[in-house]
DNA sequence: AATGGCCCCAACCGCCGTTTC
DNA sequence: AGAAACGGCGGTTGGGGCCAT
């Protein structure tokens, strides 16, 4: 890339004004031609950086907040199946990004591994280790709840709730997806520009969420891997 | 109150495959 | 056909926040 051009590019955390400008231009021009979009918008960012910011943070279809148990289970199982194919795994979890899943995995796989090592150690000493696993799960639930509260979300649905389990990976609301002030602002920007379109997207989300399916994904997925793949793919169509 | 260590996650980097011209 | 631009992906980094000391 041109050295002079690169020299003037901004890096590091995005400012609110930059986010707002980016959202406006994406709404006008669409999610493509990122280099051109970066230039036209006047943002002193690379196209790649703009794309990443949108894909990983600004896109209103993204979920916020901690992973549900169902999501965690899916991540662990798919990782066992596919390895570090984060984007592939992310496609099975609408609203979650590869980056998010990658970060989640790095954090929690280590914890889980540690817990399992303890279990092995205690089993070796003649104990069951179930108590430790239980303890681990408890701390994870506590973590999840406090994290949600820290971020100021409107509602937190218990990870044990039957509603959430039944809705699986269907829709944002079924996850107890909450509206952080920042997320609300992004939605406002978009609706300011094209209220019709955002409305349409919302209703589309609703229909594609297929809550009528009422399927407990977590319990049957491993017996019905193929069906699940088809089901989750259909969420994206 | 200061500080050092740890965790989390947004952002960046480099590579590679695909698309466009 | 080939070069350049674009987009996607996985790995890595850096900074902010939290917590224990």
Report low-confidence residues grouped into runs of 5 or more.
1-6, 141-181, 195-237
Largest β-sheet summary:
none
Please give the radius of gyration in angstroms: 20 Å
* Helix run count: 13
How many structural domains are formed by the residues? Answer: 2
Portion in beta strands: under 5%
Distance between the termini: 37 Å
Structure, explained:
Helix content is 65%, strand content 0%. It has 13 helices and no strands. Helix 2 (16-29) crosses helix 3 (34-41), helix 2 (16-29) runs parallel beside helix 10 and helix 3 (34-41) crosses helix 4 (47-58). The longest helix has 27 residues, at 98-124. The two termini are 37 Å apart. It binds a DNA duplex (21 and 21 nucleotides) through helix 4 and helix 7.
Layout of SSEs?
Layout: H1 3-8, H2 16-29, H3 34-41, H4 47-58, H5 69-82, H6 86-90, H7 98-124, H8 130-150, H9 162-167, H10 181-193, H11 195-208, H12 217-220, H13 225-234
The chain binds a DNA duplex (21 and 21 nucleotides) through helix 4 and helix 7.
Could you provide a short overview of the structure?
This protein has 13 helices and no strands.
Keywords, separated by commas or semicolons:
about 0% strand, Arc Repressor Mutant, subunit A, DNA-binding
